[in-house]
């Protein structure tokens, strides 16, 4: 499918996609489980690559909800990348953390000193609708659920509140897709362009 | 905003190569440097910990090499790729990532000789056992699988016998056992078949061959589909914490990007067969014209194969596009444009022989005479050059074997392997005709 639709659909199509959410992809000991693990039927259609690029280009600030201070956690990778390789003001939300990567951590989205453009969520699926409601309440522009994270209920709440929604995609990978990083690591970006590579 | 889907020819020219951010260079620049400066110590630490993207050292990654990696991965429909110094090293780092002492591989017996010795000698010496399956029937592969099997391996087109792998059947066998199907698609190129579309998980190429096409530069590549479940319990190195990278887990942290991230960050780091930037540039030049060249290769292969098959001086032709080839139907399914342009044929000795030994000796001598009489086709050990190439295993790669041993190895004494080039087809036929006349003493 990617051969004719190269514009970054591989992450969406891949089985058991995860940038580590909660316990990460389910590890089974059964050899018979090699086929793609069963996942709920997905009816929601995500934004196209140009639409995702548009959200990233319009945004000035990103709040990471469920941010972790553990360097082996996906949210830490995302935070390190965004702080070092992207132009955004990055805010951290986690009621159980004080400081991450030298930045103050806020207890909730409502406590942030600004309204973040993108709310990037690293939380368990059952918590996602509540985070979506909070994102609507503060007036964020985009609800972004991390790779492996999917809640059509949360998507419906956010869209009813006027937000753009992205699910099951990593904001680090998507920014890197359009700004050279993913390409440098030998991965398919789907980008075909005669314009200069933008790097941030 | 709609999402335009770019075609194969466009991606052969453009994928992985947006103009340079700083200079606007339209061609891919050759980043001829071993190393890349860090912004500061924090930047260095983040790069080494894989927390951000970027270049450190060209053994691990290089921007020119990355252009080749993304381009071929795009053409194959994979998630990404890791380029290597040669096709053999692409195979080796893949096996090194997937197997260890006590593990087992199930492989086709119809493989390039270097692959056979890598599996049967080198990896066996490291404690990895390989069962070679002398059949293309997926059921025979299934019977060879054990609890410790970690890979099912085949070439998509056998060399030189022209056997066509049953990709969908082999993928089903591999996936039922919880292991990836790894294929060498060198003779096909992604223009003729994209094995990932038929269930393969990892596709390996010797880029030296048709992808480069010019016969100037060695290179290899590993492309992964990004759809295999590495968390199924059979691949602990994908799921256990990696001490040298701060306790991350390739599958847990990187998901479908994990295997190639491991291949680059562990196997290229530890084993080191990286592709150089100048070589990557040379190979990119070839990939840009891949569709046009392969169209011409396959058209000439059909002309040459049909001409040879109709010549009484020729004893057999193994091109799977011919009527009567045992895999003709499979070839039509997987290779609608034609099954490549590397195959074999036999030159029938014209002398009367009283015994089988005499016949084998005469066949060997006739094959050698044919090779020496060619004027246009080049006698050498490569395939996939734009020029027509030939080799006579009986007098070169297999010359130490007795005629009887040759037959037992499935290499008839008069077997000639041909890699049909893109010259004018009438010139290739003229050359074959005059050499057949000299070798056999008979005219067509």
Task: Walk me through this protein's architecture.
- The complex is a heterodimer of chains A (200) and B (444).
- Chain A is built from seven helices and seven strands, in the order H-H-E-H-E-E-E-E-H-E-H-E-H-H.
- The model of chain A is unreliable at 1-37 (pLDDT under 50).
- With 200 residues, chain A is α/β, with parallel strands linked by helices.
- The two termini of chain A are 29 Å apart.
- Chain A has a domain at 47-171: 3-Layer(aba) Sandwich (Rossmann fold), CATH 3.40.50.
- With 444 residues, chain B is an alpha/beta fold.
- Chain B folds into two domains: 8-286, Aspartate Aminotransferase, domain 2, CATH 3.40.640; 290-440, Aspartate Aminotransferase, domain 1 (Alpha-Beta Complex), CATH 3.90.1150.
- Chain B has 17 helices and twelve strands.
- In chain B, strands 1-7-6-5-4-2-3 form a seven-stranded mixed beta sheet, sandwiched between helices. In chain B, strands 8-9-12-11-10 form a five-stranded mixed beta sheet.
- In chain B, helix 1 packs antiparallel against helix 3 (63-76), helix 3 packs parallel to helix 12 and helix 4 crosses helix 11.
- Chain B is globular, with a radius of gyration of 23 Å.
- Chain B starts with 7 loop residues before the first helix and ends with a helix.
- Chains A and B meet through helix 1, helix 2, helix 3 and helix 7 of A and helix 1, helix 2, helix 3, strand 1 and helix 10 of B.
Query: What is the structural class of chain B?
Result: alpha/beta
- Provide mean pLDDT of chain A, rounded: 83
- CATH class of the domain at 47-171 in chain A, named Alpha Beta
Task: Indicate the CATH topology of the domain at 47-171 in chain A.
Answer: Rossmann fold
Number of domain units of chain B: 2
Q: What is the residue-averaged pLDDT of chain B? A: 94
Tell me the strand percentage band of chain A: 5-15%
Number of strands of chain A: 7
Low-confidence stretches of chain A: 1-37
Can you tell me the CATH superfamily of the largest domain in chain B? Answer: Type I PLP-dependent aspartate aminotransferase-like (Major domain)
Q: Which chains have the largest interface?
A: A-B, 69 and 80 residues
Largest sheet of chain A at a glance?
7 strands, mixed
**Beta-strand share of residues of chain B:** 5-15%
In sequence order, what are the helices and strands of chain A, one letter per element? Answer: HHEHEEEEHEHEHH
**Radius of gyration of chain B (Å):** 23 Å
Task: Determine the fraction of residues in helical runs of chain A and give it as a percent range.
Answer: 25-40%
From the 3D coordinates, which CATH architecture of the domain at 47-171 in chain A would you assign?
3-Layer(aba) Sandwich
- The strand line-up of the biggest sheet of chain A is 3-4-2-1-5-6-7
* Large-scale geometry of chain B: globular
Low-confidence stretches of chain B: none
Q: What radius of gyration of chain A results from the CA coordinates?
A: 17 Å
